[in-house]
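User: two proteins, same treatment. go.

Assistant:
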Amino acid sequence: MRIVVADESPMFTRGLSLLLPAVSDRAVEVAASTDDAAAAAAVVRRSAPDLALISLGLTEPGGMRAIAATHRAEPQVPILAMSPADDTADGVAALRHGASGYLRKTTEPEELVSALLAVVDGWAVVPPAVLQALLRATDHPGCGDQRSLGPEERELWRLVASGRTTLGIAEQLHVSERTAKRLVASLLRRLRVASRTEAAVLAGATGLLDEDEARGA
């Protein structure tokens, strides 16, 4: 796995460059890095990594802007946000700006490798407090228009909630990748959520995935 690191501390980035290959048996390497929030999206585009690791502590325009810009420029590249503080609001905001996961910078290297692999595989890495905040934000009758979704839209929602990539969704639905991207964007608007992670949380809160298990039983 090749990752790009956008972090305000060159020492932290250097540490990751040394530690990640060592603790992952060289399965993870830092392909490029920057300490400039404004340059993060360009570095990701130029490096074509498997994942971008972006710190919320980046100086102006800041880590949130870097996440949003990177997500807009390279939506197929998952983003893991890292914060020097344990701030639930920052975690929720990072997810809504396009991150697929959120961790503290004090996370042990072995745990970080597991999180990186999970995010690349399509999973969201969310601390319990952030997950609870997302559940509170989505667990009310006025959140989204999920009750009026048709069978095809609910199937798309299940695919998003299960961590499928845009390409995986396109293949499952037998449509182009561009069409799949448009369908997902439309679904997020219907659900009134800002990210796939929130859509997955809402799916869990409304029992959408339980319906699959019940049918399988």
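Protein 2:
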Amino acid sequence: MADPPRGRATEILKAVGEGDPRAAEQLLPCVYAELRTLARALMAKTPPGNTLQPTALVHQAYLRVVGDQDPGWNSRGHFFAAAAQAMRRILVEQARRKAAVKHGGGQRRTDIDGAEVAIESPGEDILAVDEALELLAQLDARKARVVELRYFVGLDIAETAQVLGVSAPTVERDWRFARAFLYDQLTGREPEA
């Protein structure tokens, strides 16, 4: 079965936003392949040891995004941005659960076959990125949205500009700043004045 054209997804998203109950049923089959690709890309950026599968991530994110009373999506890009944000939140929540004291907290696991290699906690990187992104959002929400759309959703500069309603050069500047800011936060360097 061929993937439905992008225009069809936009039509269905508009109908969902207008409250058409049948449209929500048509939405998942229409966008499933793209959401699964997005989930695989996001999960490829997580450390080894993650037990969540892309299919489960897609379904959980879809329920969060479509479960809203009035999603208010104004475009296909807006929907996928919301889906990517939901997926990121799910991965962060999972990392926090795994790092919780009742799950061993900061304890390292050791292979029972006697190997000397300890397995790092899979959520540390995800939590650090989330914390740095939250700090960026407090300083400049648009720059944080640029990161979500570019890094997590995979939109290019032009698509990101369209979703945010700004020019492509503005997105390029925001992207350069955000990458430098996140690098500084994640490596412990002090931002240059």
